[in-house]
């Protein structure tokens, strides 16, 4: 795959600024339970952060969608979120995968994630903004958190899962991964 460099300010009509380089793009060809995207390791020392965009939908309502990083799929993520879905909501968890949407209700969803390895503790930090356009109510969540697994100094895998074995991501769900330098 050839590399693309995008000046994000140019995308907004402003010159100068940071660069986004496409690392991987994946469009799910069939309905699938989990999405795993592996790529050559990207050292945190070489980038400012990793930017991930997920644009898709699951087939069933009532279950959340989750992000895991670097093959760490154990319950070592901690997060807090503030959101709105017909009324404001606050939620915090420890010992769970990183939450993207509480109830991925079979409606289109769009999430952006910024990931970095903390320079002091070598743990993963994540901030996310996720939205879903629903027939009954639109939803958004702004989530911050991370993973407590030590010695995380690079990125090599992004993994999305649903909160139930019977729930699947629909064909056409797309994941784009960029490395960003400022």
Radius of gyration, in Å, reads 16 Å
Largest sheet: 9 strands, antiparallel
- Quick one: how many beta strands? 13
- Global morphology: globular
Walk across the major sheet and give the strand order: 1-2-13-4-9-10-11-6-7
**SSE-based structural type:** mainly beta
Strand content: over 45%
Helix content: under 10%
Q: Note the gap between the termini.
A: 23 Å
Pick out the low-confidence regions: 1-16
* SSE arrangement, N to C: EHEEEEEEEEEEEE
Mean pLDDT: 79
**What is the number of helical segments per DSSP (H or I, 4+ residues)?**
1
Describe the structure.
The protein has 182 residues and is mainly β. It has one helix spanning 8-11, and strands at 4-7, 19-27, 35-43, 49-56, 65-69, 77-84, 88-96, 98-101, 109-117, 124-132, 139-147, 154-162, 174-181. Strand 10 (124-132) and strand 11 (139-147) form a beta hairpin. It is globular, with a radius of gyration of 16 Å. It starts with a strand and ends with a strand.
């Amino acid at each position: 795959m050839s590399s693309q460099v995008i000046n994000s300010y140019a995308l907004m009509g402003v010159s100068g600024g940071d660069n986004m380089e496409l690392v991987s793009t994946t469009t799910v060809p069939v309905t699938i339970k989990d999405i795993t995207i592996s790529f050559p390791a990207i050292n945190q020392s070489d980038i400012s952060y990793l930017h991930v965009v997920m644009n898709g939908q699951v087939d069933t309502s009532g279950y959340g969608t989750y992000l895991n990083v670097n093959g760490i799929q154990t319950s070592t993520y901690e997060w807090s979120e503030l959101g709105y879905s017909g009324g404001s909501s606050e939620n915090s968890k420890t010992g769970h995968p990183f939450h993207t949407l509480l109830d991925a209700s079979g409606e289109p969803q769009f999430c952006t994630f910024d990931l970095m390895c903390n320079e002091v503790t070598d743990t993963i930090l994540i901030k996310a903004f996720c939205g879903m356009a629903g027939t009954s109510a639109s939803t958004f969540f702004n989530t911050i958190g991370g993973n407590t697994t030590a010695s995380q100094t690079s990125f090599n895998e992004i993994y999305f899962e649903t909160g139930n074995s019977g729930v699947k991501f629909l064909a056409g769900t797309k994941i784009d991964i960029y490395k960003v330098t400022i």
